[in-house]
Predict the structure of Cytidylate kinase.
Amino acid sequence: SLVSIIAIDGPSASGKGTVAQRVAERLGFHYLDSGALYRLAALAAGRRGVDWDDETGVASVAAALDAVFAGERVWLDGDEVSTAIRSEAIGVGASRVAALPAVRAALLARQRAFAQMPGLVADGRDMGSVVFPHAGLKIFLTASAAVRAERRYRQLIARGEPADLAAITAELEARDARDRDRAVAPLQQQPDALLLDSSGMDIDSAVAQVLDWWQARS
Ligand code: C5P
């Protein structure tokens, strides 16, 4: 198709959200934070008293999500939930509902609808494998577990939230294991994805690398 797509997948706290957003800004492309949709599905299910393990129930909540995005802000049923969807509890809920095939299916068309001219940078776990398999550039962005836990820890402290490095490390590892080991759309580097390990790298260098790769492709 004519719409250019850059798919960035990777584990939590790898920096893919920030990198994807900055690449989108630099290129004038749209941006999809697919994790936000799973977070919204978990939050909406919770608010409706639907259990996170109830596949049919969460799938119908996901199919009917009343969500509005504007930059980094997001609204659910007319309420701003930009902060609420970023909590660790909702992150855990997101990774539980994301393991249910009917929930993933319910969110597929909504994700593909973000592919608009002139282009899209999409970040998540299965952007290159399932949602945009024909993406012009696929990147697997990762960092060591220690570096990712440290980044998440600093984010929480900066937001004035309580943070415990050991607990964060354990939660990150549990969430990654759930994302990697699930049967449907598991987190894994695709054979046609370029590996970007940001462990010893700052955001600007990671953004520059993605832009270099994109230029080399187009
Ligand atoms: O990226 P983020 O941490 O916001 O994603 C929250 C959870 O949503 C992930 O742990 C993962 O289980 C799920 N997810 C997914 N597929 C995506 C994006 C997120 O399964 N494309």
Observations:
- Residues 4-212 form a domain with the Rossmann fold fold (CATH 3.40.50.300).
